[in-house]
Amino acid sequence: MNKTIENQLRLCPTLPTISSVALRIIEIGRDPDIDLREVAQLLSNDPALATKTLRVANSPLYMRGRQARNLHQAVTVLGLNATVSVALSFSLGTCLRDIRESGIDLDRYWRRALLSALAARLLGNAHGIFVKEELFLAGLLQDLGMLALDSAMPKEYGVLKPFVDDHESFPARERAAIDVDHCEAGEWLMKEWGLPEYLTLATRGSHDLRDVDAPEDLHTFIGCVTVSGRMAEIYLAEDQQKATADAVRAARDFLGMSPEQISDVLTQMAEELPEVESLFEMTVLSATQALGLTDQARELLATRNLQLLRSATELQERELEFKKQAHRLDHIARQDALTGIYNRRHFDESFAERFSQAVAAGHELSLAYLDLDHFKAINDQHGHPVGDEILVKVAERIQRQLRQDDLFARYGGEEFVLLLPAIGPKAAQKILDRIRDGVEKLQYPLESGAVLSVTLSAGIASYPLGPRKYETPDALMQAADDALYRAKQKGRNRVVSAA
What is the pTM of this model? Predict the structure, then answer.
């Protein structure tokens, strides 16, 4: 996030704030040695929060086998982490709902927040995530940045109000209009408040899991939050078909879930929503609306031939397959059909690029031109199939001795080229001597019982530590070719360096 917007947020007098109770809850969450009695004591100082925590412990959504009769029992039943998450959900929800003036539709914002929170919790349950209260909190707060941006820049952000219902494209519209989206702003505000890292990461990745560099063990957690917002839009968006397709695509991409599994989560959402509404004292949807919209969405998910859903999911798959096929074709086009190593086309393109990089950085770069000695005689006496087999085995032997960044290619016939990044003439000489020795030791048994062997000659030229600084890739190539010619003149089966 750029500094100008960060300063606007930091200096905004109406930026959402949190209560002292919420701050103390955050501190408790960081203390691994906290006593549950201290947590209960803190909650008892806020009668409304204490009452809600007790209700949660005995709620069908959270109850864990035995009823809690007092606050200490409630904290014991829920456990420390769950209690902190539940208390923060209510405390932060109360603080943020105290906002009365806003350019955005606050009623829609909170309905989406509760639907997302419930969806995140249920998605986590479907994936065996046992921190469901933390998922509920992450889902609840994922759009916090919208409140922050609306407070810090009401005029600029107000322009976006007509587009807020299309949440799928909304972050892109935010970035185009004000150079930041609500995911980034929410992450910043959460860090300012000192909220746990799992919340900041989930908020940053709430629109696209790929936007955040998170530990692998949090990918499914964040994926649940990413999908939860799309699940909420199924109930809120004007175009339910598109919202359902968006949810299907996100669930497949980020959680590997099928439409049938999404349908099951929607059914659970309709069943559990009344309890969530009761706990948060807010009506999200009427019972009739919830059941009706759920049935419609499930019908869309079950209709295999519905063109919109099929195009939304299959188009991306087709595009991905096209990209894979194009990559395969490009790889084939750059590969030597006989030996499997790179061909001349790929080498020429890559050589020019790597030469430019070496020149710009002042790094060493060595080029070797290799040629099998008297290879025409082998083809003439034993036939091209034998010659081809020898070329394949020579290429395999050389390839096994190279580093990952080295570039090795068949340049034509029995000629090969080898590019060695960050290697000077002395080191290149040692590498090519080792390669020459390895090729010489190869043996090729014939059906007649005879055994063939081959040798190679090589010429090396290095940039910039050769006898002169080569100005172009062609100049370096010519120097290596000249060195190869001298190796042939001196009797073959040797390596000659231009240095």
Answer: 0.58
